[in-house]
Amino acid sequence: MNKGSGGPVSRILKAAAKVEPNEVRATILSFIFVFTLMAAYFIIRPVRDAMASDWTRAETSWLWTATFFFSVVGVSLYGFIISRVSFSKVVPGVYVFFAASFAAFYLASGISSDPTVVDKAFYVWLSVFSLFHVSVFWSFMSGLFSKEQAPRLFAVIASGASVGAIVGPSIPGFFAEGIGVMNLMLISAAMLLIPVPIIGSLQKLKVTELGNANLEADLSQAKRLGKNPFSGFKLFVSNPYLLGIGIFILMYVTMSTFVYMEMREMLAVYERPERAQILGRIDLAVNSLAILTAIFATSRLTTRFGMATTLSLIPILMVGGWVVVAAVPLLGVLIGLQIARRAGNYAVTRPGREMLFTLVDDETRYKAKPVIDIVVYRGGDMATAWLHTALRESFAFGLGGVALIGAVIAAIWAMAGAYLGRTYNNAIAASADATDQEIKGE
């Protein structure tokens, strides 16, 4: 196995985040991969989010319902395709497909007689994309790096998402007037083509420098999964480990939806350009904090304290955060909670959650994982959007009441994280014991 170089970049990465010399190139390419994906998304995300304050609670809830159903259809089609086409074509094909879809929206915006219809269709489609492209990326990562490498490297790689989320909004922030809002879709579409050659390079490094040729997900082979496009749904509901991950994500989604819906209403008093500016500043704060945490803290947290602590840390912080919001129900406090929640997710919770999938096989990784990441997530969006609407309109809850319910849900989220973390730690320990027994047997 090629051990890689021991240059200054290698030494810096090892000192800051425990990246070994033979892992440097794969880590950097993975960083660039997710950086490009997130920059492409965040170029056009502020445009979508600024639209939401123009619509009623019911309209927004219906759009989230539409997003859920399109997500179910998308995951089912993905399951059908990946059962019949080699991985080496499917993974890059996902990004080519979404690039083409954004180009199609660009064309539709120029010929549509009703911009509201295009706005709402774009809102739904971008919401589907926002989970799909990241789910496929992390599926690829969990088949690229070993169980030993993932706790050290995933946080560093995930920081690329935060950097992309800073660079992406800066493009419309500084150049939207000159470029034009709809032309941003073409920029995003072009950026989504960049990962295509990176995927091939990473697969070669997996066998050479990383030494992970024995991992199951070999995209260089015309390997097939089971033909049933719905097997991912069946795997999810029949596996307690996967159900635990689904509950964990559902609790996270509830946190996200409650904050999003409350902020959407508080921002309605501002004009759309002002909203986009506030949201852009929140993105900047979130991703700056996430980068520092991911590079200097997350890998140490995971390797020193284990996955139970890693996965329950942010939920526990959210319990306290919601209590503060209940006591002081102001926009500034809610923004602070949003920054802490999102930064903690990017830097700690998301990398930890993705490590859980290093324990599963290809069928689970490529078919059940999208069900969890996309269908469960968007189903949670839909359900909690309507729950929030009911709390506000039917039961006349204020922000304080919603916050107290949020604190209870955050506590359930923390318990789910602790359960998953212990399960992961036990599986890793059992795997290490089995390896030791094999060595002794030899």
Write the layout of secondary structure elements.
Layout: H1 8-17, H2 24-52, H3 57-82, H4 87-111, H5 115-144, H6 150-179, H7 183-191, H8 195-207, H9 231-238, H10 240-266, H11 272-305, H12 307-327, H13 331-355, H14 362-394, H15 399-441
Helix pairs in contact: 2-5, 2-6, 2-7, 2-8, 2-11, 3-5, 3-14, 4-5, 4-7, 4-8, 5-14, 6-11, 6-13, 9-10, 9-14, 10-13, 10-14, 10-15, 11-12, 11-13, 12-13, 12-15
Describe this structure in words.
With 442 residues, the protein is mainly alpha-helical. The chain has one domain: Up-down Bundle (Growth Hormone, Chain: A). It has helices spanning 8-17, 24-52, 57-82, 87-111, 115-144, 150-179, 183-191, 195-207, 231-238, 240-266, 272-305, 307-327, 331-355, 362-394, 399-441. Helix 11 (272-305) runs antiparallel to helix 12 (307-327). The protein is globular, with a radius of gyration of 21 Å.
